[in-house]
Each structure stands twice: as structure tokens, then as C-alpha cells.
Design a protein that fits this description.
Layout: H1 5-20, H2 28-35, H3 39-51, E1 55-58, E2 64-67, H4 76-84, H5 108-124, H6 127-130
Antiparallel strand pairs: 1-2
Helix pairs in contact: 1-2, 1-3, 1-4, 2-3
């Protein structure tokens, strides 16, 4: 997975919901407007985040989305992987078998180390720490 606009948008939407506090649901239009994420992207992103049990979707006239857990319990890694898939800096780290030089490549350990460091940063950073209101 390369970090894409979709991953960035997922983080922005989740950061907005982390800021809000409370348990009342927030509509797609509200989240879109306040997180500056285009609505047409947001609908799919919110479905992915709901499937990953990071959001709760409430149906009906007063429906919308709320965080499934406290912001301090949701890592950025969870949000990223729910929206764009497993975090890997390079194709050889994706485990797809596309690289025929894996066993002899001197760069593989470097990519692996860098990927692990990045993964640790995203895993240890919680939504509450990127939200201005914590």
C-alpha cells in the first residue's frame, strides 16, 4: 500500500469525529464540510471504517456516524489500514511475491527497517493526539 489521498481523507474524517466529543451521530455532509473531505470520497471511506469497527453507523433520519471507541484507543495505523490496506513502503514488503530478487537484494533489510519504524509511529499515535481538542 502506498499512502494515498484516501488514507489522508480517512485520517481527517476520524480526527474531526475525535474532536467533536459526545455520542450523537454526525451526518456525512457535516463530516465532509468540517473535515474538508469531498463527500463522494467520504461515503466509501466511512463504510470501510465502519466495517473495521472503528465507526458505528446509525441509520435513520437522525443517523450518521460516531466513533466506536474513544479517540485515545484508536491508532492511526488502524485508520490507515482500514481505509487503504496493509502498510508497506515497497512492493517487496507487501508479500505478493512480485520481486524475484528478494533473497539477494541488499535494500530489502533497509526497506524492512524503515517500514517497521513507520508502522510503530502510526501504531503508537492515537487519534486523540492529532485532534486539537484531544
Amino acid at each position: 500500500m502506498q499512502f494515498t489521498r484516501k488514507g489522508d481523507y480517512a485520517l481527517k474524517a476520524m480526527a474531526y469525529l475525535a474532536e467533536i466529543k459526545g455520542t450523537s451521530p454526525h451526518t456525512i455532509d457535516e463530516i465532509s464540510e468540517n473535515s474538508h473531505v469531498p463527500r463522494h470520497f467520504l461515503a466509501k471511506i466511512l463504510k470501510d471504517l465502519t466495517r473495521a469497527n472503528l465507526l458505528i453507523a446509525v441509520k435513520g433520519a437522525r443517523g450518521g456516524y460516531t466513533l466506536a471507541r474513544r479517540p485515545s484507543e484508536i491508532s492511526l495505523l488502524e485508520v490507515i489500514e482500514a481505509s487503504v490496506g496493509p502498510l508497506a513502503l515497497n512492493l517487496c514488503l507487501e508479500g505478493t511475491g512480485r520481486c524475484s530478487e528478494l533473497s539477494t537484494c541488499g535494500l530489502y533489510p533497509v526497506w524492512q527497517k524503515a517500514s517497521k519504524a513507520l508502522r510503530n509511529v502510526f501504531e503508537s499515535t492515537k487519534l486523540s493526539s492529532i485532534s486539537p481538542k484531544g
